[in-house]
Design a protein that fits this description.
The chain is of the alpha/beta class. The protein is built from 9 helices and 13 strands. An 8-stranded mixed β-sheet has the order 3-2-4-5-1-10-11-13.
Amino acid sequence: MKKSTVILSLLFFVVCLYGYAAPRGHLFIIGGGDRPENMMKKFVALAQQCGSGKIIIFPMASSVPNEVGPELVEEFKKLGANAEFHILTREQALKEESSKILDDAGGVYFSGGDQSRQTAVLLNTLIHKKLLEIYERGAVMGRTSAGAAIMSEVMITGEERREVKEGREFETLQAGIIVTAPGFGLIKTAIVDQHFATRKRNSRLISLIAENPKLLGIGIDESTAIIVNPDETFDVIGEKMSSSMTLRGPRSILRCPRALGSRT
């Protein structure tokens, strides 16, 4: 075989490999707080572009999932979506039959609460694997508040490795005090923080980016969201775009954000 043929074959393999691996879905990451109707209509519209358009809700991050689940179903139904919620244990999430609830889903939505509750149930399970699969084929993944944090591979847990008075958390730029844990890995090149300006979390995110300079830091305020597109750009939508902050790492693959007709 000629050298040129070998090189072309290798190039074809690389192109096919990366073309297959690149996700076709969207990430819809909300910073918490109220969810404006126009913002949630956009989430529903993205979900309806994939599969049956059905939205699966996982409310396990909440301390009251049996209340939050039905509330979110009702919210999505008012926007014209077909939605259902599922409260799973880790044992259920490890079973093949449980992953079938995602078979024809167009979107998945994770409630707020404590992100560690959600990962304790779903991380490294068959449900987690199926989430990655349907995202790659075009589904939209939506999360708010704690649900936003679990999007990235490096997840902020909300804890510090020091004793501080209530209301004085994350006031300083200091190495080694922010506790992180593995997230779902839907974003591998960034760390996501939520309730950003409202709860004055600038120092928290800046500290983590200083420790992880190859990662992008994305701070999202309440009633605001970023939509990560398949081409690795992201759009900003919601009520507090001027409060949202973007910190760029030197090797980030996420390119400049755009605003989507939102109030500032």
